[in-house]
Design brief:
transmembrane; 8 helices; coiled coil; membrane; 8 strands; alpha+beta; two-stranded parallel sheet; Outer membrane efflux proteins (OEP); OMP_efflux
């Protein structure tokens, strides 16, 4: 009888020791990806970033197009005309009437023309607007990049936290599996009840089910991250080994909401609408343009390109220079109506700017509140993990000396697992709140730096 007690006691000590052992495993070393590397690849690969860069390039050509309106416009024309029937005219000379053909069967000419705008308010306004258009697309590209950075950072930490939860469940599964094996040995030797083995197997099955759900969740989250990074979904990735460190100092920093890209884009858009109004007003201004041409013409009864004066074909040059002034006097009120419409567009955008300012202010206040709550929750969950670890160790010790049941041991293991998962979830909530706060401060680009 004493021998059985000693053997059971030793086996219980083995069970307790098994709970405190951590499993070690070797995994295939994949290239680790940091948050900064993920953001870098996203900005290089994502279609949104590429399209925003193309818009900037397109704006450069718009500037060239607008500039061309202020430069000389030079063109050349040439042609040959054959008149099989020449119209006759009636001429009077000293009371006599004469029927005469005014023209020749063949006519040929080559002309070079030049047009130079001297004053046109629309051209000058268009050039300014084109430069602002480029600035608009630059700001829009910056806003697009910030949205990409936010999506990548959110997806990255989603994967990070789920992998941490998976690690916690793997440890719990390994510990429980070792205990199950010890209890099975006890049952096989008639030193433990079968119900204890059944209870442990149920616990192991539950952990396995939860672990498989997390494995699937990690895979889905990685697929989302790869999508935001703009890389093939079948690419194998592994996150960089790193811990999440809360940064309470973010709350102490000042913020300038006017620096947000959302507002800058709207304000630049307003500037473009102002230029649009000025371009419409330019129709009320006169325009001045210089025109000049120089030509060489030949006409006669024979094909002019191969004949000269000896064969009845006369070649001569000609030129003209003129100044054209166009003064709008009355357009029926259409220009005035277009100006009024352009002004309404500006006022409409002003409402959007005002609403966006309120929205950004709300986002910042909410982000600050969420950070404060997340910091409190992290501290609480951290203390809870410490307490759960103490309870687990005490329960294992009590079980070793026969002062606790197997159910209590398994419950303490469950409580520790839940506490660790709640802690990692609190860290995820914090990182999401941190990203929102950094965005609210207009500093998402800082996430690109290590």
């Amino acid at each position: 009888m004493n021998r059985k007690r000693i053997t059971a006691k030793k086996l219980k000590i083995g069970v307790a020791a098994a709970f405190m052992m951590l499993a070690s495993s070797s995994a295939y070393a994949q290239q680790q990806i940091s948050l900064q590397e993920a953001i870098k690849q996203a900005l290089q690969n994502k279609a949104e970033a590429k399209k925003a860069a193309l818009q900037i390039k397109k704006a450069e050509y718009k500037i060239d197009e607008a500039r061309s309106g202020a430069l000389p416009q030079i063109g050349a024309t040439a042609g040959v005309t054959y008149n099989p029937v020449i119209q006759e005219s009636l001429l009077e000379f000293g009371g006599e009437r004469i029927r005469a053909q005014l023209g020749q069967a063949w006519q040929s000419q080559a002309v070079v023309t030049l047009n130079q705008t001297i004053f046109d308010q629309r051209v000058f306004t268009g050039l300014k607007a084109a430069k602002s258009t480029r600035e608009f697309y630059v700001l829009n590209a910056q806003l697009t990049n910030e949205q990409i950075i936010e999506n990548v950072a959110t997806a990255y930490y989603q994967v990070f936290v789920q992998e941490e939860n998976l690690k916690t469940l793997n440890v719990s599964y390994t510990n429980t599996e070792k205990v199950r094996n010890v209890i099975k040995s006890l049952v096989d030797n008639g030193l433990a009840k079968g119900i204890d083995l059944d209870r442990t197997n149920v616990q192991l099955t539950n952990i396995s089910s939860s672990r498989q759900q997390l494995v699937n969740a990690v895979e889905l989250s990685k697929n989302s991250l790869k999508f935001y990074m703009g890389i093939p979904i079948d690419t194998e990735i592994e996150l960089e080994e790193k811990t999440i460190e809360p940064q309470p100092q973010l709350l102490a920093e000042t913020v300038n909401l006017e620096g947000r890209s959302e507002l800058k884009v709207l304000q630049k858009n307003r500037e473009l609408l102002v230029f649009n109004k000025k371009a419409t007003e330019a129709y009320l201004y006169p325009t001045v343009a210089l025109q000049a041409n120089y030509g060489w013409a030949g006409m006669g009864k024979k094909f002019p390109l191969t004949n000269g004066l000896n064969n009845g074909v006369l070649w001569s040059d000609y030129s003209a220079i003129g100044l054209n002034i166009n003064i709008p006097i009355f357009t029926g009120g259409s220009t005035k109506s277009k100006i009024a419409q352009a002004e309404i567009d500006i006022q409409d955008l002003d409402q959007d700017i005002q609403n966006t300012q309120l929205q950004l202010s709300l986002e910042y206040k909410n982000a600050v509140t969420n950070i404060e709550n997340s910091l409190i929750n992290i501290e609480s969950m951290k203390n809870n993990v410490t307490l759960a670890e103490k309870v687990q160790k005490d329960t294992q010790s009590n079980y070793q000396y026969g002062l606790a049941t197997l159910t209590e041991v398994l419950d303490s293991e469950n409580a520790l697992t839940d506490a660790k998962q709640n802690y990692t979830t609190a860290l995820l909530d914090y990182k999401q709140a941190e990203i929102k706060l950094i965005k609210a401060k207009g500093e998402l680009n800082t996430l690109q730096n290590p």
